[in-house]
Write a structure and sequence with these properties.
Elements: H1 2-24, E1 35-37, E2 46-48, H2 56-63, H3 82-87, E3 94-99, H4 105-116, E4 119-122, H5 123-132, H6 136-147, H7 153-164, H8 167-172, E5 174-177, H9 183-191, E6 198-203, H10 206-215, E7 216-218, E8 225-227, H11 236-241, H12 250-269, E9 275-279, H13 284-295
Parallel strand pairs: 3-5, 3-6, 4-5, 6-9
Antiparallel strand pairs: 1-2, 7-8
């Protein structure tokens, strides 16, 4: 009858919940349990801390009435703030910062690097250095960069993987700026077992980005980023030596933006649960405060 059917369903639900709770219980003290989702669209396992800490596949299975122990395995992971991680030398933070061209990635990386002592790796800077040094990679990348197009995945993936394997990155943690920009690049990181702790996404509308691109200037001596209107140089001496990137024209910025919009949602879907969206339209210090909050 109805009453016994409802009692049965209630009992099964409670058992499922109990199974989940007991699986979570032995997590080390201070550690937040996180489920390892085996269904991520990148094709490899990735962390998910979504609603109620459940990976969506697991939510689906539970809602279909499957028992908890039949769903994907539960793995205990420590979800720590960046400052906690800094204190724990064994788990240095690994952060990806993404956003459209001129959304402020480089500007914020200067501050994040100073605050947390992470190794800052900008694929744009690495490629520009390679072009300048006329290396094989530089020669392969040059034309694409000049046109504002993405450099082919096979040119960039190897350099990034090699750089992340170096000892300074392993010891201090890293801040990856401008990579991955395609699903292929995200998949390559995951396949190499490189899993970020956190992904930060700076959101800025396109028209604001164009204004930022055309007004950007760089100090070749210090590497500092300026903007003629929003972050003008401190002295005439600095102003006199500022340079402009060859791809910082409105025309090329529109090509770069197009590439960004084409690929970004696939990249985002690889990092569900560890991605934080930050309003990049605010002044630099406010954006930084928001980023810090996301890292807590
Ligand atoms: P890259 O150098 O990475 O260029 P990008 O992604 O287009 O990013 P930007 O460096 O232009 O901007 P940003 O977000 O760092 O902004 P910034 O802080 O400087 O890549 C260049 C090229 O290399 C690519 O086009 C591609 O060809 C190739 N490439 C690189 N990585 C690749 C990859 N993974 N795969 C394939 N190809 C790759 O700020 C911009 C301006 O705004 C500055 O003037 C700044 O002062 C100002 N500003 C910053 N924040 C604020 C704020 N809050 N308010 C007001 N102004 C601000």
């Amino acid at each position: 009858n109805d009453l016994s059917r409802h009692t049965y369903i209630l009992r099964r639900t409670m058992l499922s919940l109990l199974a989940l709770t007991s699986a979570w219980a032995p997590a080390p003290s201070g550690a937040m349990p996180i489920l390892l989702s085996a269904h991520m669209s990148c094709g490899t396992a990735a962390l998910s801390t979504g609603k109620a800490g459940l990976a969506s596949e697991q939510c689906d299975k539970l809602s279909m009435g499957m028992r908890a122990e039949e769903s994907v395995p539960i793995v205990h992971r420590r979800r720590s703030s960046v400052s906690q991680m800094m204190a724990d030398a064994k788990t240095p933070p690994k952060i990806i910062i993404c956003g459209a061209p001129a959304s402020g990635k480089g500007t914020q990386c200067e501050l994040l690097k100073e605050e947390y002592g992470l190794v800052h790796l900008s694929t744009g800077d690495m490629l520009r250095a390679a072009v300048k040094a006329e290396t094989e990679v530089g020669m392969a990348a040059k034309g694409y960069m000049e046109r504002g197009e993405l450099v082919p995945d096979e040119v960039i993936i190897g350099i990034v993987k090699d750089r992340l394997a170096e000892s300074d990155c392993k010891e201090n943690g890293w801040l990856l700026d401008g990579f991955p920009r395609t699903e292929e690049q995200a998949k390559a990181l995951a396949a190499a077992g490189i899993e970020p702790t956190k992904v930060l996404y700076l959101q800025v509308p396109d028209e604001m980005l164009i204004e930022r691109v055309v007004g950007r200037r760089l100090d070749p001596e210090t590497g500092k980023i300026y903007h003629l209107k929003f972050a003008p140089p401190e002295s005439d001496e600095v102003a006199a030596r500022l340079t402009q990137r060859s791809d910082d024209t409105e025309e090329k910025a529109r090509v770069r933006l197009q590439a960004f919009h084409k690929h970004m949602s696939a990249v985002e879907s690889c990092y569900i649960g560890i991605i934080s969206y930050v309003d990049g339209t605010k002044p630099k210090t406010e954006v930084f405060a928001e980023l810090q909050k996301s890292l807590e």
